Amino acid sequence: MKLFQIVIASVLAGAFSVSAMAAKEITREEAEKANYVSLGTVQVSGEPTEPSSTKADLSKLADEKGGSYYVIIAADNDRQISATAEVFKPTEN
Questions:
Q1: How many helical (H) and strand (E) elements, i.e. helices and strands, does the chain have?
Q2: Which helix (DSSP H) or strand (DSSP E) does residue 12 occupy?
Q3: DSSP assignment letter at 66
C-alpha cells in the first residue's frame, strides 16, 4: 500500500511540474520589451478543434524547441486549423 501511495504522489508531482513548465503565450510587445531571444517558429495544423487545444499544441512545440514563451503570428481556420507561432526564451546574461 505504501508503494502505491508513493507511485501516485510521484505521478501527481510530475503532472504539476510539466504544466508549470509549459511555454506561455505572450504578445509581440511583451517579447520586445523583455528583449527575449527568438528561437524560430513552430506550426500546427489538423482537423478543426478548440482554440485552447491549438494553443496547448503550440505550447508543447515551443517547450520542445527550448522556449519559455510564444507569440501567435498566423492562424487560419479554413476547413482545417493551422497556426504558426514564434518561440522565445529569456536573454541569457
A1: 3, 4
A2: helix 2-20
A3: T
81-93 pLDDT per residue, tens: 899 999 999 988 6
Placement of cell 507561432 in the chain: 85
Q: Is the C-alpha dihedral spanning 32, 33, 35, 40 positive or negative?
A: negative
In the chain, the amino acid numbered 30 is: E
The cell numbers describing 34, all together, are 523583455
CB 58 within 8 A of CB 85: yes
Neighbours of 91 (CB within 10 A): 9
63: nearest Cα among 12, 13, 17: 17
- Which amino acid is present at 29? E
Please give the model's pTM, rounded to 2 decimal places: 0.73
74: three-class secondary structure by DSSP: strand
Residue 73 identity: I
